[in-house]
Amino acid sequence: MTTRPPFGGPRAAVALAAAAAVAALVAGCDASGGAGATSGALPAPPTSAPGTTLVPGTTSAPPAGPSTAAPPATATLSPTAEPPSGGTSAPATPASPAAPPALRPGDSGPRVLELQNRLSAAGYWLGTPDGTYGQLTQQAVLALQKAAGAQRDGLAGPATWRALDAGVRPSARSTQGRALEVDLARQLVLVAQDGKVQQIFNTSTGSNTYYVSGGVRKLAVTPEGTYKIFRQVNGVDPGPLGSLYRPKYFNGGIAFHGYSSVPAYPASHGCVRLSNPAMDWMWSSGVAEIGAAVHVY
Fold first, then answer.
1. Are 170 and 239 in contact (CB under 8 A)?
2. Across the chain, which distance is largest between two alpha carbons, in Å?
3. Which of 55, 164, 178, 202 could crosslink 143 through cysteines, CB 3.0-4.6 Å?
4. How far apart are CA 30 and CA 95, in angstroms?
5. CA 107 → CA 80, 192, 262, distances in Å?
6. CB atoms within 10 A of CB 4
7. Which helix (H) or strand (E) segment is 227 a member of?
8. 3-state DSSP call for residue 124?
9. Distances (CA, A) of 141 to 144, 182, 231, 248
């Protein structure tokens, strides 16, 4: 059995040389954690030394000197793991910048104002841009999401910005004159002039479920067809199913009207719901006068 000499003398010099070699390898690592450096720990050295053995010039006792300890017969320096032959590690790939968080109701600031300006420029009505994400901005985002076939959550996330970048806009079916179009499949109201869409609104039409009114069971449906606005009430019009805000009737008791809730899905008894401010715009803009064409499809 070989007795381990105390630390010092030639053996200490060998150990210090080994530590310096390891430090030189560590200093060449990428601090950002590039390819091949995922764990943060150095690779384990190989189990056998590949021939880097330091042998003193003699195995006899050392000459008399200050140290009385005998040097080791041999001293082996095991190298750290070497890179694979034939190539070097791939450079680190920089991480993609994180997408900004989705804008939502209650947010305000320059990004909201940018969103509002871009929605308005694309025809999605939200009133006057003011930098605050309120009900009308949410309604415009819902309309864009419906037109794009995206998730209808009213939040301006990556899919919403991509739709804006792509210029997503629904097309009109009418070709001449002024027309109000109700797209049942996408739950949108379009204001078109000579076949070109000018304004786009989120809407909620008949829920296609049954309800009872006056003891009669009825189906909540918005019938397809071509109509004209024939009656309007500039105020709140009470009715058997509730009050309608500034309604414009185009098919019996079915009308465009303002309502406090305009969800992303069909929910009405058959009328075409718009937000109250959107209904005010319908009146002030003159696009829905008596005799205006209405296409429901």
1. no
2. 122
3. 202
4. 15
5. 55, 31, 20
6. 8
7. strand 225-228
8. strand
9. 5, 18, 31, 25
